[in-house]
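Run log // design_07
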């Protein structure tokens, strides 16, 4: 049996053609959305140069703010009728109404108007017509402004303590967003700048803060702008003040014979046994590393009850107005317990147990000896807090006012 082979044809009579044209029409959609910036199309071309344009979240947030709920035809007719009546009254009482209905908006200002509760396009600069019977408006100043972040004490990454402040310069970039997105613009900006400043300072070591202050300022500016651009506010500049060193970072003990850790030797290094014993003996003889804050030796032993009796006659309304806080002291050791100092109600009070005037603003835990040294001025609150001898729960700023309180009590 033999097989018969035939030559395959090289040409295909049934040529298959593919149509790559799109079943959709984009021209009308491009023309409809060209005003919104969703698509862009070059003149003289049938196809768009880019299907989408990418921008920041500011525009998206703006569209959500200005998004209107559907209105019925009756509602639209009633609104148009009211507006028409207002225009008729305006022309009937002209020119008297001109003194009240026309407002001059300067070049650096914009006028955000709400007509019957709905926002209309921002007006200005120039002469703007206002229907006072149905319009409410807000005049926005677009010029650059500034505010100061007061100096604050904060920790650095290497456990140092610095006091830094900042000057923040900003301007309104979108008048409409600045009105519809924020209730209290000044308060929101101050809180945001204060939080961003402390957060970025805490990420750097003390030496890095002093050397790279300009770079940290730029980083803080970018961080704040990420939030404020959605509010219609642009941060143009952040200047951090020269840091004031409150407490240096704890020193790193590099003595190989100190008790801070075992002796570090290069790998694969054989050390004779007698030398190892000598080094171990020197390590144990070195004793504990010195403390950052020396322990205060008790002087005259004054019990907490005696301190309460000494403080009670010194309280007055002036101290209550200046401090306005309730302190709770938790003392360990001999004659310890729970005590309170109320500088928020009446003329102030001190006593044993929980504060009767409400929850304490801050709780301070320490030993009885440290409390005695604290009220005698031999121990400062902030160094005690850094060293761990004073533990604070609650408002740290209120706790740090304790030093000024002790100065006023004059128990030294």
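design_07 sequence
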């Amino acid at each position: 049996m033999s097989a018969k082979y035939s030559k395959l044809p090289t040409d295909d009579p049934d040529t298959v053609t593919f149509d790559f044209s799109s079943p959709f029409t984009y021209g009308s959609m491009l023309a409809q959305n060209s005003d919104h910036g969703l698509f862009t199309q070059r003149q003289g071309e049938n196809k768009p140069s880019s299907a989408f344009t990418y921008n920041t979240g500011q525009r998206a947030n703006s569209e959500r703010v200005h998004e209107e709920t559907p209105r019925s035809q009756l509602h639209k007719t009633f609104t148009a009728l009211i507006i028409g009546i207002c225009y008729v009254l305006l022309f009937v009482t002209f020119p008297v109404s001109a003194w009240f209905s026309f407002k001059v908006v300067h070049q650096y200002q914009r006028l955000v108007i709400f007509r019957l509760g709905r926002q209309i396009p921002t007006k200005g600069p120039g002469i703007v017509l206002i229907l006072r019977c149905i319009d409410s408006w807000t005049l926005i100043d677009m010029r650059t402004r500034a505010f100061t972040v007061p100096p604050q004490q904060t920790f650095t990454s290497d456990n140092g303590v610095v006091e830094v402040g900042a000057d923040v310069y900003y301007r309104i970039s979108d008048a409409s967003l600045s009105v519809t997105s924020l209730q209290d613009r000044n308060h929101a900006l101050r809180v945001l700048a204060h939080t961003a400043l402390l957060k970025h300072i805490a990420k750097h070591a003390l030496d890095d803060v002093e050397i790279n202050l300009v770079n940290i300022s730029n980083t803080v500016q970018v961080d704040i702008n990420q939030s404020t651009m959605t509010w219609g506010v642009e941060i143009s500049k952040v200047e951090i003040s020269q840091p004031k060193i409150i407490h240096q970072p704890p020193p790193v003990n590099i003595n190989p014979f100190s008790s801070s850790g075992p002796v570090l030797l290069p790998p694969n290094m054989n050390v004779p046994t007698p030398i190892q014993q000598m080094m171990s003996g020197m390590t144990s003889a070195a004793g504990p590393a010195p403390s950052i804050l020396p322990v205060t030796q008790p002087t005259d032993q004054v019990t907490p009850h005696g301190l309460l009796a000494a403080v009670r006659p010194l309280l007055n309304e002036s101290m209550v107005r200046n401090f306005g806080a309730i302190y709770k002291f938790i003392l360990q050791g001999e004659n310890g317990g729970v005590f309170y100092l109320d500088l928020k109600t009446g003329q102030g009070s001190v006593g044993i147990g929980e504060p009767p005037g409400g929850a304490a603003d801050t709780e301070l835990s320490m030993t009885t000896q440290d409390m005695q040294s604290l009220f005698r001025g031999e121990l400062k609150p902030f160094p005690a807090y850094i060293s761990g001898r004073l533990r604070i729960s609650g408002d740290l700023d209120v706790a740090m006012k304790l030093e000024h309180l002790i100065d006023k009590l004059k128990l030294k």
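The mean pLDDT is 75.
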